[in-house]
Amino acid sequence: MLLKVFAALSFALASLATSLPADLPPFNSSLFKDLNVTRGLVYHYYASPADAGKPTLVFLHGFPSTFYDWRHQVSFFQDKGYGLIVPDMLGYVGTAKPLDPEAYASSLISKDIIDILDAEGVHQSILIGHDWGAKIASRLANYFPQYFSSYAFLAVGYVAPDTFALPYQEQNNASRAVLGYENFGYWDFFSTEGADQVISDNLDSFFDVFFPKDTVLSIKDVAPLGALSDFLRNDRRTTPGDFVTPEERAIQMALLSQGGFAAPLNWYKILTTSIERDDNQGIPSENVVLKKPVFFGAALRDYLALAATFIASTLQNSNDTLTIQQYDSGHWVMLEVKDKLNADLLQWIEGLN
Ligand SMILES: *[C@@H]1O[C@H](CO)[C@@H](O)[C@H](O)[C@H]1NC(C)=O
Ligand SMILES: *[C@@H]1O[C@H](CO)[C@@H](O)[C@H](O)[C@H]1NC(C)=O
Ligand SMILES: *[C@@H]1O[C@H](CO)[C@@H](O)[C@H](O)[C@H]1NC(C)=O
Ligand SMILES: *[C@@H]1O[C@H](CO)[C@@H](O)[C@H](O)[C@H]1NC(C)=O
């Protein structure tokens, strides 16, 4: 009997994690599109047209994320008549999921985003990126500055071409010398064969530790070499942050589970091999310093993407007005401090020109 109840309960939880509502407000389901970009990969994206006289905002998500992470910004700016373009980045949900890490070179992904903007006839927009989306925003600024009037970086600031210039093992040694642990030791696990299955098999553990209430936890349970692998393989749990409701968490899990994690982990494999470093050789040196207005929303309780590091790199590479807002937040500023961030972004956008 007990077993039966337990089985029924597990089934209910499992179906919650795999079923998606037909509508995901504030996204209007008739405004999603697909585009087969120049290199023959299909991108799925949300495109809400701008009211006359309003600019278009382009939102790029990071890891482990989807278009859905921008729900609070879409709701806020859509109501005000701003145009919105919100893709699923390469490897995620409705977009193609190539398994070859080479496909994830930043220059190639940047060109994909430009193909979407061309298809939408948006030749001037405001670019907003979080996490690895901020890295792509940085590369778009390097390769295609003519498409953008300004850039907003969230949690991860401007990723200068030399940010991850050291070979991965040396980078681990360097951060261990400064911090006492490898700041990006979890990239090693992410680059290991089978890591995607470990994540899928321990999805609650993974979501707990990546969307935690107590972000200090990442210093011992995510960052050091071997730590994240141990945490997941032991299916350890921790209190999740209350900035994601249980319903939203179920939606995130269902979206990310659709395509699995093998493709998204390529965002890390390009950094633990030489792919990213080699690709960055093609960045025009005259575009390394940003010559447009920049907004950086720093997350003071993010212990992986350290606010101080990215404030420094963004400051060093901005040659127009720079607005820095520092939030009492972990990594997910667009969720954790959504109202403050939306208000600050609006004020910044209205003050441009
Ligand atoms: C969704 O978009 C379609 C197409 O533009 C529009 O006709 C419809 O009114 C929108 N729905 C809502 C709820 O805004
Ligand atoms: C996308 O384009 C490529 C060639 O450019 C083609 O091989 C592929 O079948 C297309 N994909 C879809 C889904 O149409
Ligand atoms: C990193 O440090 C370890 C331990 O001190 C050492 O064995 C290794 O050679 C170092 N690797 C690199 C690439 O510097
Ligand atoms: C920064 O801007 C100033 C004035 O517009 C210009 O003289 C200078 O060359 C620029 N520096 C860089 C590194 O682009």
Secondary structure layout:
Layout: H1 2-18, E1 32-36, E2 42-48, E3 56-60, H2 71-79, E4 83-87, H3 106-119, E5 125-130, H4 132-143, E6 148-154, H5 168-179, H6 186-190, H7 195-201, H8 203-210, H9 218-221, H10 227-233, H11 246-259, H12 266-272, H13 275-279, E7 294-299, H14 307-316, E8 322-327, H15 333-336, H16 338-350
Helix pairs in contact: 2-16, 3-4
Task: Characterise this structure.
Pfam families: Abhydrolase_1. It comes from Dendrothele bispora (strain CBS 962.96). Residues 1-17 form the signal peptide. Mean pLDDT is 94; it is low at 1-17. The protein has 353 residues and is an alpha/beta fold. The protein has helices at residues 2-18, 71-79, 106-119, 132-143, 168-179, 186-190, 195-201, 203-210, 218-221, 227-233, 246-259, 266-272, 275-279, 307-316, 333-336, 338-350; strands at residues 32-36, 42-48, 56-60, 83-87, 125-130, 148-154, 294-299, 322-327. Helices cover 42% and strands 13% of the residues.
